[in-house]
Amino acid sequence: MNETMDPTRLYALNEFNYPKFRSQIFYLYLHAFTTGEQAQYIDPQQAESRLNELVQRGMGVMAFTGDRLVGVVLGLPLRYDGDFPALEMPNLPIDTTLYIAELMVHADLRGRGVGTALIGELLSRAAETHTDAVIRVWEENKPALLLYNKLGFHPVATITQTKKHVSGESFEMKKIYLHKHLSISPPV
User: Fold this and answer.
1) pLDDT along the chain (188 residues), means of 10
2) Which residues contact 164 (CB under 8 A, 6 or more apart)?
3) What are the b/e assignments for 108-117, b being 16+ CB within 10 Å?
């Protein structure tokens, strides 16, 4: 890829502009999770339903370089994450905690600050209405763990999920929940 790159621009993703970018976001989602070391089988219909639900219930930010969509982050209230071990974190308010459900950055641009910018912008927007944020990541995804730690997230819980490789073979994936308190409290 060319070393000189257009600056990355960030835009809010919501139910109004989502239809215009839906196919690009869908492609990016499949690209992010079905290729590379973390490659897993994802049913396209389930992926489309998940993306629709995330946009409908939550908030998001898109990153563009030129006219190309290169990253998306989507978050929603933690109460919608059925896998979160709430009993292990009884003091974490699930209605005012943002669950960063998906962070997708095109492989060509990973390590160039796109993920940092996306999460920073989402947290900035979320701080108006949320007190905390959590994100879940595969324990083997060392670059993501380093990024989240750099952004002030700390491990609070773990779960194990059964996933499928693109070959169809099942495997266990240990996921780590990381937490960050947001400095701006929502209005009372």
Assistant:
1) 68 95 93 71 85 95 94 96 89 94 90 94 94 94 93 94 75 91 64
2) 40, 41, 170, 171
3) ebbebebbeb
Cα 184 from Cα 162, distance rounded (Å): 36
pLDDT recorded at residue 163: 75
Q: What is the pLDDT of residue 88?
A: 84
Measure the CA–CA gap between 51 and 49, rounded to whole angstroms: 6
Helix pair 142-150, 114-126: axis angle to 10 deg: 50
Backbone angles phi, psi at 50, to 5 degrees: -60, -45
The torsion angles phi and psi of 110, rounded to 5 degrees, stand at -65, 145
> What was the pLDDT predicted at 188?
47
pLDDT at 84: 93
Sign of CA dihedral 82, 88, 90, 94: negative
> How far apart (Å, rounded) are the C-alpha atoms in residues 51 and 23?
11
Please state which CATH class domain 8-132 belongs to.
Answer: alpha beta
Whether the CB-CB separation of 132 and 98 falls below 8 Å is answered with yes
At 150, the amino acid letter reads K
